[in-house]
Design brief:
This is Vacuolar membrane PQ loop repeat protein. The chain is mainly alpha-helical. Helices cover 70% and strands 0% of the residues. It is built from ten helices and no strands.
Length: 310
């Protein structure tokens, strides 16, 4: 059955990729938010990573609005800013609360924290919550001790995930299916019908130039954002506190986001306008792969082996 005359094949393909990307970004927050909530801590995340990421998303949204890039790209850019703020607020909350508790405990004892202080808790080797997540211990776990009933009620299971990569791959497959179905549903209800072609500025217009500058600025921020997180993981020789699925969804979102932008049109003028968005989304995939490698070499099982050998 052919598509409606109001939707070309390129627009349909762009819409499907964009819907999958949007689904990835909608789900992106959940693994890390749940990991932070269970740990009652956001120590695993670099605030520099989140701050640069937010700045890049703001520039991305501004450039998308000015340039008239694919509608899905503009929608995603707006959601990026919202999701960044949610995660940053949660991290600031836990960092503030934990710092305040640390100061109160220090004042109550009258001495500085030492290795025997309750502030230093033994790290857990198991991954809890979502598959592939590694996190620091929480105060609630210490209070619950080893009571199995309490652990079940609070969701703290000591059993490690035997195959997190497989489980996370299945989660990604579900995201792709839901995203594709979401586009077809929106198409059937007429969400993609458009009465007229929108005005798009040419690449030589001042508006397009401003949009390009903002686009390249956002791409630069995206490429630099993960560097603080990679360095933090390297210094601590740990990915504890990070959810593997968080970065897998980021990789999937960036891949389909770039595919959405590219498949929308292959006209030279449009490709030139889209270069910064393609660079920002596809370029960060390399850095995501570095973080995946860190997940592997800094895994508790690998660290437990003599000399860190495989």
């Amino acid at each position: 059955m052919p598509l409606s005359l109001n939707v070309s094949a390129n627009e349909a393909l762009s819409g499907i990729f964009g819907s999958i990307s949007l689904t990835s970004w909608i789900c992106l927050l959940l693994p890390q938010l749940i990991t932070n909530y269970k740990a009652k801590s956001a120590e695993g995340l670099s605030m520099g990573f989140l701050a640069i990421w937010l700045f890049g998303d703001i520039a991305n949204l501004s450039g998308a609005l000015v340039t008239g890039i694919a509608p899905t790209a503009t929608t995603l850019a707006a959601y990026f800013c919202f999701s960044d703020l949610v995660l940053i607020m949660q991290c600031l909350y836990y960092n503030t609360i934990n710092a305040r508790r640390a100061r109160q405990r220090t004042r109550s004892t009258g001495t500085e924290a030492s290795e025997d202080s309750p502030l230093l808790r033994p790290r857990r080797r198991s991954s809890t919550g979502l598959p592939g997540s590694q996190r620091r211990n929480s105060t609630r776990h210490e209070e619950s001790g080893f009571d199995p009933i309490t652990r079940i009620v609070t969701g703290e299971d000591e059993t490690p995930d035997s195959n997190p990569w497989l489980h996370n791959s299945l989660s990604l497959a579900a995201v792709y299916i839901v995203g594709a179905l979401g586009w077809f549903v929106s198409y059937k209800v007429g969400a993609w019908d458009k009465p007229e072609e929108p005005d798009v500025p040419t690449t030589a217009s001042p508006v397009a130039i401003v949009g390009m500058v903002l686009g390249y600025l956002s791409a630069l921020c995206y490429l630099c954002a993960r560097i603080p997180q990679i360095l933090k993981n390297y210094r601590e020789k740990s990915c504890e506190g990070l959810a593997l699925l968080f970065f897998l969804l980021s990789l999937s979102g960036n891949l389909t986001y770039g595919a959405s932008v590219f498949s929308y049109s292959q006209e030279p003028d449009y490709i030139i306008k889209a270069i910064p968005w393609l660079l920002g989304s596809l370029g960060t995939m390399v850095e995501d792969c570095i973080i995946f490698y860190q997940f592997r070499i800094y895994s508790p099982e690998r660290q437990a082996k003599p000399n860190g050998t495989a």
